[in-house]
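Input for the complex:
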Amino acid sequence: HSTRSIFDISRSGRRSTRFPEHPANPEMSSVEEAIPAEFLAEEMAPLPELAESDIVRHYVNLSTLNMSVDTHFYPLGSCTMKFNPKRHERLAGTPGLIDMHPYQTAETSQGMLKILFELQEMLAEIAGLPAVSLHPAAGAQGEFTALLTAAAYFRDKGENRTRVIFPSSAHGTNPASAALAGFECVQLKKSATGLVDIEELQAHLDDQTAVFMITNPNTIGMFEPEIGRISQMLHDVGGLVYIDGANMNAILGKTRPGDFGGDMMHYNVHKTFTGPHGAGGPGAGPIAVRDFLADYLPAPIVTKQRDESGNEVYGLSRPAKSIGQVRSFFGNVGILLRGYFYLKTLGAVGLREVSEQAVLNANYLLSQVKDFLPVPGGDVCMHEFVASASPVLKDRGISAMDIAKRLLDYGVHAPTVYFPLDVPEAMMMEPTETESKSTLDRYAALLRTIATEEDPEMVHSAPHTTPVCRPDEVKAARQPILKATLPATGVDEPTEEPLVTRSV
Amino acid sequence: HSTRSIFDISRSGRRSTRFPEHPANPEMSSVEEAIPAEFLAEEMAPLPELAESDIVRHYVNLSTLNMSVDTHFYPLGSCTMKFNPKRHERLAGTPGLIDMHPYQTAETSQGMLKILFELQEMLAEIAGLPAVSLHPAAGAQGEFTALLTAAAYFRDKGENRTRVIFPSSAHGTNPASAALAGFECVQLKKSATGLVDIEELQAHLDDQTAVFMITNPNTIGMFEPEIGRISQMLHDVGGLVYIDGANMNAILGKTRPGDFGGDMMHYNVHKTFTGPHGAGGPGAGPIAVRDFLADYLPAPIVTKQRDESGNEVYGLSRPAKSIGQVRSFFGNVGILLRGYFYLKTLGAVGLREVSEQAVLNANYLLSQVKDFLPVPGGDVCMHEFVASASPVLKDRGISAMDIAKRLLDYGVHAPTVYFPLDVPEAMMMEPTETESKSTLDRYAALLRTIATEEDPEMVHSAPHTTPVCRPDEVKAARQPILKATLPATGVDEPTEEPLVTRSV
Amino acid sequence: MLDAIGVSSIDELFNTIPENFRLGRDLNLGDHVSEMELTAQIQQLARQNASSSSHVCLMGGGAYDHFIPAVVDEIASRGEYYTAYTPYQAEASQGSLQTFFEFQSLICALTGMDVANASLYEGGTSVSEAAFMAMRVTRRHKKVVVLESVHPEYRQTLQTYLQNLETELVVVPTPSGTVDLKQVAAVMDKETACLIVQQPNFFGSLEQAAELTRMAKEAGALSIVSVDPLSLGVLKRPGTYGADIVVAEGQGLGIPLQFGGPFLGILACDEKYVRRMPGRLIGKTTDSKGEDCYVLNLQAREQHIRRDKATSNICTNQGLMAIRATVYLSSMGPKGMQEAGKRSCQGAHYLVNQLKANGWKAPFAAPYFKECVLTPPASVSEVVTQAQEGGFLVGPVLDRFTDAFCEETQEQLQNSLLLAVTEKRTLEELDQLVGVLAS
Amino acid sequence: MLDAIGVSSIDELFNTIPENFRLGRDLNLGDHVSEMELTAQIQQLARQNASSSSHVCLMGGGAYDHFIPAVVDEIASRGEYYTAYTPYQAEASQGSLQTFFEFQSLICALTGMDVANASLYEGGTSVSEAAFMAMRVTRRHKKVVVLESVHPEYRQTLQTYLQNLETELVVVPTPSGTVDLKQVAAVMDKETACLIVQQPNFFGSLEQAAELTRMAKEAGALSIVSVDPLSLGVLKRPGTYGADIVVAEGQGLGIPLQFGGPFLGILACDEKYVRRMPGRLIGKTTDSKGEDCYVLNLQAREQHIRRDKATSNICTNQGLMAIRATVYLSSMGPKGMQEAGKRSCQGAHYLVNQLKANGWKAPFAAPYFKECVLTPPASVSEVVTQAQEGGFLVGPVLDRFTDAFCEETQEQLQNSLLLAVTEKRTLEELDQLVGVLAS
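Predicted:
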């Protein structure tokens, strides 16, 4: 493949999108008449010049260098890389949804507001927590928003709680969000199963404790057996329990964060409810909280009322003691819509089956690999598990990273490796419910093949079939090259090519 | 890559599309009540059972085994593989166009009929022939339809003309269409330039001559210099001249079939006007004819009238002596729409520039390869040319087919080879106007590299990087395997999987 | 570039066109418009049409408002498929080739036939190609028999295809909506190449297709059965009752209505006729390394090789529509086809019964599947307008086809229309239509 | 599968959930609906909304109805992009990585800055992230200065982000629509981390951005300029007047309005601050074979490595929106950006002049680009309804934001709204709107 950028293939005079000038009109002023020269650019931006055909060939070919759920098995632990139903992608583009301005009046937005209201209700029901805000842009912002909500609650109660606690296996966003929100971070010690050491936790709890953040099921793929006691401990000191919802795919309709003691949680709509991952985003990070926190939620919340004739009327409102907005506009509506479509599509039974099938698939996979990739969490997991490549490293010098890279050669995306740090040579695998048994069988067989591959050098030096192999990250960081620019040399084509080199 | 078919990956119980049963209603009969048992199937069709995720991964991966205009340079002579503007693809899907039933009343179809009427007018103008039928499904059907139109005209005049003549370089569809229409076929002798031997033609002309079919510019890429005289000769004996419009991309707005003596022609909308090729189709094959043939055109034709208030009203009509329909419904409207969008997008000047740039690109390419791949047609061509690999075959044992296959290794689609038969080791190249000079330069350099490749065996045994290499066609024909079926062996999955394995 | 060519202007390259033929002016096509302007213009024109987006569509007559799963659009809109050429170059086309191979396989599974080609233009030309194929197979070129209940535009197409030949086209009238077997027996003879039947027929009614197939065989002719693919989740597959050639309009298999095309011509047949088939065929074989692969097969039948001796003149076919049908059938599976068929059939019978209760008449008594000829108590053209204003598209009105039917049949079709119900229609919609038409 | 695991039922796998926490009932979510039913339901709900499909949209306030070339949708709807994960695994992600690298490059070209990250959530959080970054760079954590003419929701976001910290947020009032430089000078001091300016500002007006940038520098603070990317084909690029950090709402760059998100947060800055930047960065490097390739760079700034010491908590970003912007800018090129900017600017001035001739007032005198605050002669809410009934969406009405402005500014905004004109608007539409509002 070629790594030439669009700046390299730019040719002066090529065009794709053009706009006509406004027709001559005596009352039309030129830009120079409308705006003083001091504000006007002296030259055009040095953007590349391309025909639509150049653009299409460039990006279509680039896209095929990716592995993706649509093309490959992608057992990336903690990321829930499940299939994204195609209807949902298309429905999100329905005229009348995709082209609504965020400041339209409620009167002209009833269909959209009804959808968002129903989504709030559904997310509350799934969480077992009554108040929902759809506002946060992603899971990390959901965490941050919930922590600010908690802070506002404590402040309102006149309490000065400065500390947020989390297990060592917590996602990096937990401490990062807590720090951003102005809290002091306390991390518990490592644990190979990711389960909380009750005594250690107890030692940290006092009237400075604001929030205990816990992912449950945890990052090792285990449901925290002491979650009830942990919640009670937090509540006993006046603190709150935050449930990181990254692993909700394991427990939908089986148990609810609100029922096992959580006071606040966020959803990752792009993990659990098939907003696609989009090569990194966008997500949506709705939060659900207990009733006593509802007044502090960010604005806006969707409300339903009835008018005189008894018709349902939807509107937006600001909670009484709202922390305010954490972003502009309502939220990542395009992603929320996909979540809504997904929940409607599955209904109560289908949603429970999601978790049942996800857990079944994970346990089946675990059963097929545990003899050569031991799983510290034990023989039963939730929707994912963390295996360790330590024995393979010891016996054959093949590391988790080596296995991950070698998998790419066989057309399977790597699992998450070296996270959480609690497990040495961690390989975190989450097959999700949308993969078939035959895919899992093939994957398990591949892992075995790689772990026992005759020539370990083939594994060390993998991947061999991908467009590139083990980029030099140190070099990248030492002298960062972070952009391309137009070549300085001239070009040999006419300065304005004919219409045909553009698409339209 | 895997050649497992969807029948191989089928698993009993997996589902993608489901339909609900109608709600219980006392007036609803079961199918068994509605239809006697003798008509009802006794078992379900043995179709594969798949989840949407299975389908997507299967076909997305399959698609990437193709070379296509969106991904590769595709200099396939005679096929005009030009870029398809993306807006046109999307506009063809506009609600109110894509979902119109063909039997809607004219009253409910005015927007569509206006588009089709304007397209008729534009195609007449480009052809220089006043009467247009948009009805034929593809170029070959256009030929067939025009020949039937001519036959009806002759029959109506009481003439018994049974013979259709064409040059040896004619597309195979010309004789095939003539034969299907009941004509006797006469093929002229081979000619390395594809130009017509006037004397030979003259010898065939008499009162049995119905039509002379000619592609102009011809398949060698040359404009027939004697086209005026040829037309005159045909008209002198009462015959008609048919212009195969496959090569219209060379002459848009530069000259018109009607002006140089053609009486009938067809367009290939998917070649000239960017209906995409669709891996083989669909196309659309509108025909344009002289006024005296208009009454015989197939039904329906779009008409424009004015009502009492002076408003334009569009309708469908049947020409007075119409040959009737050659297919059901109006025509390949979806493809015609793309042609309309293209013509609107370019306008008169843009359309002329298409041919100018196409001819410029072809001549530039010719200039870069003629020293090692001689071009019998000479140093100037129209939108395409036919080079000969004979010297390379003679000197190095590398055939046109070898070069074609080796090009695939470099990520370029092969040119058309061994057509027309008039040129030995023919390589017919058509770069089209949408390719840039740098693409042409790279292609010419590749041809040179291959023709002089150090190890000719690498060329003989090419391609090496494609999913397959030189399939055994003889074996395929001897014992044809033309379908897959469901495996007879059982499967180990439940008979009805949970909702989550389906998309929706 | 001009320097490399050795000319001083692009115009010079056009010097081979005799001067008197050069167009000395701009074409009268108007000025170019930008993508933005074109979009606005087309959206405005589209709003001047009714469609199944703006109305609830119950129109029939060979094109139906069936449901299209989103996955069909997702796959068919991939540039790798839709901007590829005909897969002549097998190494660069395994994606298309395997997909078409799967299309052939799915059509065989759906129809119960041995072998299917990789598409023809649409239903009408498929009937014609099948008739020509039957003439080649039977070497009988004098007579083709077709039931009047076959779609009038398919019959018209066949008639046009035959109009410059000697073949006689015999139409067996069907004034009672389905054919009288005795009348068929009366015209079948040793010169008859084939008997063409549609099941369900144009009126939506069910013919004695199995019996008709048997009668064709007895006369040494081939039976050609034109089916609605969307009926085959419920009705007998023609392979199970011995049809020789099955043809179909494949529009219902995931292809939008788009005012009549592009649709999808389907042709499947008994294995023994494979070398007489028209159209492209994909076969499985092995490559130079012995690996399985797919390739265009039996090309010697085709126009680019056999020219005037080819089995058809077809070149460009309906590849992308075949890809759509492939994804569609993969997504439907056996149960989806059955569910869709049942829903359509039940909805149609429900609607017809409701309308009958309101004074509508059904001129034909035979069992029907999803479509039916109906005569309203009021003027049929007023009914169409009334429906339209109420948000429904109905029809076609059958006087559109009067030339296509014998007098006796025409009488039955007076003041009547076709109504078709697909799986998309809900009971609420059907009740609403009944209400609109009752008011 | 259960046998292999060694359990007898799926439920057994959930035994690790304490029994008292297991949900002993179905969730109250209702029954599942089929793809076909869902489609019908959603289309029906969508019809209950107005939108830029049903109406001509002249709404402003930070989200605009700009034209989106089809090629943007074509590329962004490829599964290889939208179903891929964050490109941590470089070998499996060169497509995304190179595309994001090009995104960074295009944003630098457009803004005139040295380095851009691979996206943040949207405009408001970009302002906040920039302020936090400025505090890190300047090590001044006590004070942030923002002009009142910055989008009120961006300011609100910033305020929320700071609400649990000690940092003081100083808002410089802008009652005349643009800021008085003297008032800025009065608040800038040695404790000020940054000065935040929006250009064009929330009211559409042009601030003395170059001068403000200079004033920030003088105080040892960073200048943060929030721009409308669609203005940069016409207006000065902030890199040319020395801005330290440029942020932007990237929605105009090929991203649909979708009721407010997902949009695209842009952040670009001077090279020397690169290691203090929030968000993902893609760098070019070489692989083990020495070939050029792309990789996530400087990850040590990020939460998954640095945890509570990270430069931001952002993880999921707006990757797919960045891909859209990349294709958009490739398609626009320098001339497209200029043409779009000119058309918007000219259209806006035309409309404002026509409305002024009809008695409308513009409370602010400063030059504006494509958007303007206007006060109609009638009640503004009636005007909105009138426009809506005439087929136009206008606004927002500015009383929506009253809490966000000081009293003096509020007075100027009484009974007024924002109107924005993009390149999509034709003179005919503008004339028609003037007509609708005059009647």
